[in-house]
Design brief:
Order of helices and strands: HHEEEEEHHH
Largest sheet: 5 strands, antiparallel
Number of helices: 5
Number of strands: 5
Number of domains: 1
Strand content: 25-35%
Helix content: 25-40%
Strand order of the largest sheet: 1-2-3-4-5
């Protein structure tokens, strides 16, 4: 496996600030397998009435990063736009000129893409992460 493309440790490291600065805990942290081959990594942080769900699909090399209002809100749930918000929706609410592709690991390492997402999450979602506001 190409660790520059698929790097769960880089995602954990980029989002450690959720634990250190916002008091979140890790509810789920696992690499998913099919026929003994890894196909995805999922980590979920919980705190302040919020969940941060991070999924990296290895086959498509795609991040599915969401903020979820409510600790028991069903996720994934494509129809719940009221309680589940993709990171990019939060970021673009503040900075419309952002390119959604820049937050994906397509033309960069997993570590670089994770760091970009973490940077913008801290920049624009602090009140959301503390449970004081919502999208």
């Amino acid at each position: 496996m190409d660790t520059s493309k698929y790097n769960p440790g880089a995602i954990r490291k980029a989002f450690q600030f959720l634990v250190d600065e916002y008091g979140y805990t890790i509810r789920r942290d696992e690499e998913l397998f099919h026929n003994e081959q890894p196909y995805a990594f999922v980590i979920e942080f919980v705190g302040n009435g919020r969940r941060v769900s991070l999924s990296h699909d290895y086959r498509d090399n795609f991040f599915d990063f969401n903020i979820i209002k409510g600790l028991d809100t069903q996720h994934p749930n494509d129809e719940d736009n009221e309680n589940i918000s993709p990171f990019i929706k939060v970021f673009m609410a503040f900075e419309r000129s952002l390119n959604p592709q820049d937050f994906q690991p397509y033309n960069k390492t997993c570590a670089e893409a994770a760091s970009i997402n973490a940077y913008f999450l801290k920049k624009y979602a602090s009140k959301i992460l503390f449970g004081e506001d919502w999208v």
